[in-house]
Amino acid sequence: MKVTLIAGSNRTNASSTNLLRYVGYLLEAEDISVHFIDLSKIQLPLFSPDNWDFHSDAKRVLNAIEEGDGLIIATPEYHGSVSGALKNALDYITASQVAGKAVLSVSSAGGPLGVSSLSHLQAIIRNLHGINCSEWISIGYGQNTFDSDGAPLDEGMKERVQKAVNHFVDLTQKLRAAARAEH
User: Fold this and answer.
1) What do you get for the CA distance between the two ends of the chain, in Å?
2) Is-contact 76 9, C-beta < 8 A?
3) Is 32 helix (H, G, I), strand (E, B) or coil?
4) Which residues contact 131 (CB under 8 A, 6 or more apart)?
5) Contacts of 40 (CB under 8 A, 6+ apart)
6) Is the pLDDT of residue 69 over 90?
7) Cα separation of 74 and 86, whole Å?
8) Which InterPro entries does the entry link to (predicted)?
9) CA 25 – CA 183 distance, rounded (Å)
10) Percent of the chain beyond pLDDT 90?
11) Between 20 and 30 A from 132 (CA), which of 6, 73, 142, 166?
12) What is the chain's mean pLDDT, rounded?
């Protein structure tokens, strides 16, 4: 199984990116192939529907999404929504690249929880015909409390993340099997 992870912050050492790296570690521990896209390292041109001859970085992101069996997207919460960098990256995506795939949403907020950004992200995924996981991951107050290996220091957070990842993996496997049975 292949999973594409998109870190939607353009901030160096963002807590949402650190959290997503930990999620990637959990997936790799289960022998799941991970393609990590960090939008702080890939500067995508502003999307325009007038130009479908995409920049090579945009093509790389789209290829990774197409090749993945599932998608995990992390965002900081900015003014109650997803980051501009992530929204721009998502604007490149067409429904054919996400339709029928499991998507897990992850957020980090400066306040108690990033629920607004998660709701917006899930609405975008629904419009792309992706299958939102019923679980999501949100940390608040920029809980940038990770050890040197990238694991959250808070045991409760570790348990919540593991539960959401397990649910995502289960959903992805079921959707993958159903898609193969149709063909």
Assistant:
1) 17
2) yes
3) coil
4) 100, 101, 102, 103, 125, 171, 175
5) 7, 9, 10, 11, 12, 14, 17, 85
6) yes
7) 9
8) Flavoprotein-like_sf (IPR029039), FMN_Rdtase-like_dom (IPR005025), NAD(P)H-dep_reductase (IPR050712)
9) 32
10) 73
11) 142
12) 92
